[in-house]
Each structure stands twice: as structure tokens, then as C-alpha cells.
Specification:
The chain is α+β, with helices and mostly antiparallel strands and about 280 residues long. The chain folds into 2 domains: about 110 residues, 2-Layer Sandwich (Phosphorylase Kinase, domain 1), CATH 3.30.200; about 140 residues, Orthogonal Bundle (Transferase(Phosphotransferase), domain 1). The strands form 4 sheets. The chain has a 7-stranded antiparallel beta sheet, covered by helices on one side. Strands 6-7 form a two-stranded antiparallel sheet. A two-stranded antiparallel sheet has the order 10-13. Strand 2 and strand 3 form a beta hairpin. Helix 3 runs antiparallel to helix 5. The chain starts with a strand and ends with a helix. About 5% of the residues have low confidence.
Amino acid sequence: MTKETAIQDESNPKTTQIPKNEEKSFANKEVLPKMKKIEGDEPSHLQLSEKFLKRWSIEGLIGKGGYGEIYLAVDIVKGEEVAIKVEPKKRRGKLAKRMILEQHVMFKMQGKPHVPLMYGSGYTDKINYMIMQILSINVGDMKKSNPNKRLSQCSVGRIIHQSITALRDLHDVGYVHRDVKPANMCFGIYPSSRHTLILLDFGLVRRYKMENGEWREQRARAGFRGTTRYVSIRVHRRCEQAPYDDMVSVMYTAYELLSGELPWKYLEKSEEVLQLKEAMVIF
């Protein structure tokens, strides 16, 4: 059983389209994500050279995490490269909901300049999937590839400015991201989009205000969501996250990109990271 939802509509003026004269060529293939080796004994949701849904040829694995995998694929109808993100339909015996929420939020955000363009989404018997535009390596990897392991003030300024704009769009529709960091920021790969930052991974979003503008009632103690290195002090203290906390993560991102690393990079315990963050704001 397969269900697919196509959301790209060429008649919809809000949908970002790749210019036709750019469809067949990249501005710079060096910015494409590097293929990752698939170990023989590792289970893989999609197989190399597989024709997924008889439409997309799987070229390689470009991302892998605890929640799923991201593949580089080619649309055999249009000859365009795309990214396919998949997750198992069930996790620990329960229906996986992370990508379902991510699909919902990204659908609401289509037409905004700093969100990936989605070509379709759906599920099969075993996986949930999203088919999206292919993007560059992430900002964190860009920093690592730089000889001095940091980015210029000008580059960081542009990244942060666009990150704030991207988060404003997300906050406007009522959600907080909860995992803002360099690894979740990329750029387009075509001449028209190579200077446009794209915010990724909406799997940890949470609605903080309702459609009528009223804020949700805050929990007395929220679960920890995010990446320890970049979360705010409030998140360490298990406070309910709000747009403020996304902005703090942007600040830590800027610090890391400018200086090369955060002061707590080599600390392993969350409590130690919290103590150092608190020390930095005591005057």
C-alpha cells in the first residue's frame, strides 16, 4: 500500500520553482552533500539504484540519524536531483509521528523563502517519506571545511540575518523549532538560490500558540528537546520553549561560526554545560 501527496503546483504562485534554465546544471557541484558509505550489515530503508515509487532513482545516502535517513535521488521523468527523507513507519512498536508533524509544518510553510521546497510526501507499508529539493552541505560542515575552521563576519552576518527571518516565518504560523544549529542550515545549489539560507529539520517543532493567536498553556516541566550545545538556559531548566529560545540558539550558532567553537564544546554532561552558560551571563 502506498499513499503519496503531491504538493508542488505549478499554477500556484506561492510555490517556489527552479528556473527552467537552471534545472539541468548546478552552480557548484562541490557544495553538494557528500555520499555516506552504507555498511553491508546496516539495514537501509532504500537501496542504491532502486526506483522508488517507479519515479526516483536512488543514487546514494547523504544523511543518517536516529530518526531516519536522507537519500540523493534523481527524478527519472524530469532528470532533476532531489532529496528523499525517510523514517520507519513504526518505532519501538508505536506509530512514528515525527515526520508526520514535519510534513504538516513544511506544508504550511511552502512559499516561504527559507524552507525546503517539497515535491511530495506520503507513506508505504514500512516508511514515511518526504521528497524535497536538494540542498548544499550544511553550514556546520562549511565551517569545518574552511582552513581556519570559522567563517567571516560578513558571512556569519548574512547567515544570522536569514536565520532570524526563517524563524520569524515559523513563529508566525505558531511553532517553535527547538533544534536551531548550524547542521540544520543549508543553502540552495542553483545560481538563483545559492545565497538563500534554508532552515531544515522540523521534526522537533512544537506549537506554542493557537491559530487565534493565544499562547498554549505552559507545562510546569517540559521535556528536554534540542541539542545540548545550542539550547538556552531555560531549556536546560526544563522550561516550556518559546520563540526566545530559538533566538538564543541563533546566538550560540553565531558565536560558534565566528570563533570556531563554543566554550563548552568538550563538556560531556548537560549540567556542566548549563553551569558554563550561566557563568557567561552573570555580570
